[in-house]
Amino acid sequence: MSFALHGVGVSGGIAIGHAYLASHTAIEVAHHVVPEEQVANEIMRLDTAFNAVREELESLHASVIDGPAAAEYGAFLDLHRMILDDPTLSTAAKSYIAQNQCNAEWAVTQQMDVLMAQFEEIEDPYLRERKTDVIQVVERVLKALLGHPGYVPPPLKRDGDSILVAHDLSPADVIQYKQHWFTAFLTDLGGLTSHTAIVARSLNIPSVLALHHARRLIRDNDLLIVDGVQGVVIVDPDEHVLSEYRLRQSQLELEKQKLKRIRTTVSATLDGTTVELHANIELPQDVEQVKESGATGIGLFRSEFLFLNRDCLPSEDEQFEAYRTVARKMRGLPVTIRTFDLGGDKNLDSAKRVAANPALGLRAIRFCLAEPQMFNTQLRAILRASRYGQIRILVPMLSSVHEITQTLHSIENAKDSLRQEKIPFEEKIPVGGMIEIPAAALCLDIFMRKLDFLSIGTNDLIQYTLAIDRADDSVAHLYDSLHPAVLRLVAHIIRSANRGGTPISVCGEIAGDILFTRLLLGFGLRQFSMHPAQLLTVKREILRSNLPDIIPFTQKMLKADDPAKIHTFLSKLNGHAA
Ligand code: PEP
Ligand code: MG
To answer: Based on the domain organization, do 202 and 307 belong to the same domain?
Structure first.
C-alpha cells in the first residue's frame, strides 16, 4: 500500500531506491555477512566487549558514594549486570554469530529484540518497563564493540540504490556514511540545523529528518521516493507517481549541470558589488567538492570531525597532515580552521562527560580551555601547517573578553613552544572569532578590538537567542531564523563590523539558503560561507540581485515585528508574489 510521510528536508534533490533499515537502538547498527574464517574473531570481539562492560559496571559500582541515592543506584547497576549475564543476551548472541555468519553488533541487537519480546509478555508494568534497561545495556556493549572495530564492514556497492532508514543518527554516525554509498537517508529525529543535518547536507544526497515513524512504518527493501526539497517520503509508490518523480529527478539534474556554467563567473551583484563565496567543510576529503564549486576559500573547517568515531585523540602530526593537505590543495586561497567545537551534540568517546544541558555546557572554546594539552596540540598543528597556505584560526562560541584573552594567550604559548623548537610557522596568522552567542553580538566592539576577523554562526546564534535546542525536534517549529530578534541581531553585527572595518562573514546554514541571500546582502554582508553543494545556487541569486532595489526592503524588514509582514517583505524581496 502506498503512503507518504512528511518531515524536514535537509538536503535537496530526489532519490528513488530501496529501504535499508538500521537497528533499533539509538546506536545504529548495520548487518554484514562475515566470511567464515572471521566468525571466531567476531565471537571473540563480542566476549571482549561483554568483559569491558562488566568492568565498567564494576568500577561504576565501586565509585558509588554513600548518600541518599546510593542504594537505588547500586540496585540499578546490579540489574544491568544481571541483564549482561543473561544467557539470552550473551551466549545466544554468540550462537547467533556462528549460525548466521554475521557481525557481533548485529547479533547482539537481534538478541536484544528477543529479550525485549520476553519483557513485553510480563504483566507487571514495573518489570515490563525494564526493557529500557536492556536497551541501555546493549548500547554499552555496542559502544564497546564500536570502540574496537575488528571487522570493518565492506562499503555498500557504489551502484546500489539503498536508502538508509534510522531512528536517529549522531553526527558521528553520519560522518561514517561518507565512506558508504547510500542514495538518501531518513531519520525519525533531528532538527534542521542539528549537526546531523549539517553533515547530511555535506554528503550531498537527499535526506529527510524528523519523520517520527519512518523506522516503524517502513520495511526493509520497500521502494521509496525521497524528496529532499519538500521533505516528503513516498513509500511503495505506484507507476504514475514514480514516473512523475523520475521526470523531476532528471529536471533537477539538468538544472545542476546548467549551474556549473557559472562556476568561474565573478560573483557580483548587478550593480557591480563583489561578494566572496567560501565553503564549509568537515573533512580534508571535502576539498574536492570545494574545488568543483568554484569557492574562493574555506570559510569554516569544522575540525572537530577529525575526532569523531575514534577512541583516541589525533596526534599533533596527524592533525598537521590533515591541515596541511587542505592548505596545499587550496593553493593559497584562505583556509579558516575552526578550533575544536566539541561538546554539545558532538562528543568524544574518550571524554565521557554527560551534561544535563550540553548546548550550554562545556562546549567549543570552553572545552578547549578546560583541556589545555589537547588545545595546545591542535594549535601547534595548525601553526605548523600555516606555512603551506593561507591559514586562519577561527574560535567558536566565545562569550567574554576573558575567554578571548585566554585563547590568544594559548596561541602565544603554542607559538613560543614552536619558536623554541625552531619549527617555522606564519607569525601573523589571523585569529578570528565566531559570533554565535548574543552576549558576543552585544559587545562586538570588544571582539573587534582583539580579533582580526569575525564569522557569524547563525545556527547557534538563533539557538541561543531564542533558547531553542537546535538538535531537539520537539521544539524545531519554534526555531525561527526570521524572528525579529534574530534579524536585528544579525543586521547589527554586520553593520558594526563593516563600520569598524573588521571582515565579517556568515557561516551558519542561512548563508547557503537562497531565501536569505538578498536579505543578508541588504544587511551589508559581502562574504558568505556555506556547504559547497549550495554555492552555485547562491551565486546565481547574487548575480540576479541589485543592491539599490534590495536595501529599502531589508530596512523595512528590520522595523517590522509582525511575522506575517516579515514573510511578505521577504517574498517581495526575493521577487515572489507575496
Ligand atoms: C553555527 O553555529 O552557525 C556554525 C556555523 O557552527 P556549527 O553549526 O558547527 O555549530
Ligand atoms: Mg556553532
So the answer is: no
Domain final residue, candidates 258, 290, 308: 258
In a domain, 263, yes or no: no
Are 92 and 176 found together in one domain? no
**17 is a domain residue:** yes
Shared-domain flag, residues 434 and 571: yes
Pocket test for ligand 1, best of 280, 300, 360, 460 (most atoms within 8 A of CB): 460
pLDDT tens digits for 194-206? 777 777 777 778 9
Structurally, the chain folds into a number of domains equal to 3
Q: CA 363 to CA 357: how far, in whole Å?
A: 10
Confirm whether 31 is domain-assigned: no
195 classed as catalytic: yes
Q: Which one of the listed residues 80, 102, 180, 507 is annotated catalytic?
A: 507
Which helix (H) or strand (E) covers residue 553, if one does? helix 547-559
Residues 485 and 347 in one domain: yes
Residue 441 belongs to domain with CATH number: 3.20.20.60
Instruction: Pull the grid cell for residue 265.
Output: 563567473
Report the nearest-CA residue for atom 4 of ligand 1.
Answer: 457
Residues with CB under 6 A from ligand 1: 198, 300, 302, 341, 436, 457-460, 507-508
Check pLDDT > 70 for residue 98.
yes
What three-state secondary structure class fits 48?
A: helix
The predicted pLDDT at position 350 comes to 44
Please give the number of the atom of ligand 1 that sits closest to the Cα of 195.
Answer: 8
**Residue that finishes a domain, picked among 258, 285, 315:** 258
**Is the same domain home to 224 and 313?**
no
CA 132 remoteness from chain centre: 27
In which band, very low, low, confident or very high, does the pLDDT at 348 lie, cut at 50, 70 and 90? low
169 CB-near residues (< 8 Å, 6+ apart) = 22, 28, 185, 187, 190, 196
Q: Is the pLDDT of residue 437 over 80?
A: yes
Measured CA to CA, the distance from residue 410 to residue 415 in angstroms comes to 9
Q: Compute the mean pLDDT over every residue in the chain, rounded to the nearest whole number.
A: 88
pLDDT tens figures, 269-301 = 999 999 999 999 999 999 999 999 999 999 999
Domain that holds residue 93: 36-145
DSSP for 56-109 reads HHHHHHHTPPSSTTHHHHHHHHHHHHHHHH-TTTHHHHHHHHHHHTB-HHHHHH
**Index of the ligand 1 atom closest to the CA of residue 341:** 9
Residues 239-263, mean pLDDT to the nearest whole number: 94
507 is catalytic: yes
| More confident of the two residues 539 and 66 | 539
Task: Classify residue 30: in a domain, yes or no.
Answer: no
